[in-house]
Amino acid sequence: MEVTASMVKELREMTGAGMMDCKKALAATDGDMDKAVEFLREKGLAAAEKKAGRIAAEGIVDTNVSADGKEASIVEVNSETDFVAKNEMFKDFVAAVAAQITKSSANDMDTFMAEKWSLDDSKTVKEALASMIAIIGENMNIRRFEKITAANGFVVSYIHGGGRIGILVEIESSVNNAEVQEAAKNVAMQIAALSPKYVDQSEIPADFIAHEKDILKAQIMNDPANSKKPENIIEKMLEGRLNKELKEFCLVDQVYVKDSDLSVGQYLANVSKQVGAPVSVKRFVRFETGEGLEKKSENFAEEVAKQMGQ
Predict the structure, then answer these.
(1) What does the alpha-carbon distance between residue 65 and residue 170 come to, in Å, rounded to a whole number?
(2) What pTM does this model have?
(3) HAMAP family attached here (predicted)?
(4) Could you give the domains of the chain?
């Protein structure tokens, strides 16, 4: 029997389950609505997905680094309330998710969610999440993850505020001793505190710089005190303001929080001299719980049609 969008819509309204889960349930039961409901209940998806309308904007960020420091992951898992985010069962689940991501070959969320769950290979990650939702009684969401593989150094992690902010930093160096590890931790704390966007100015997109330049020039020209200044002076003012602003975005140009006489770049240069080998930041990832989250307004009919390819 052909599964139609209207059938999926009806089953979703009855169970609160996800559209693709409803489609699969109807396909597995030859379009029998009652059997499809039972199919979803047996999978633990109906009970869990009924809570999916409530936004999950709390939660925690966690990290996992392999024993040799070469592989690492960072993940954000959301919950509805801060109370659940502090629950030890929830924390253990997030830690297990991070550990699995480190070893996983998945590069996107759909692939990862379809993997066998590391703690129970009779379930997928998605089914393990559904089970946790049913046990805890709140909607939860594995929102995002990233992985880092260090080819010429190691990765260090840092968790701030009980999981509110998580950091991964890839350090490039032929030396990996206590001094370099301490420097890496200090850099990770810098990233947590001052939230840079890039390692250095070479990473900043040209269109971003052009946009910022336009804004700064408008600010300068809107000041009556600058109306009679020559163009070359205006350009020098613009260059000065732009450089100052870009330094705030770039990790190595930021003032080092533990020694305001140094930039982060200068601090790492000092460490490099002390250990006798270059020590630099290759890349970093910073997750802050709930950043950018807002509840989406969805056109249900369009959503169903898009998911079903109709």
Answers:
(1) 11
(2) 0.73
(3) EF_Ts
(4) 5-53+295-308 (1.10.8.10), 56-149 (3.30.479.20), 201-278 (no CATH)
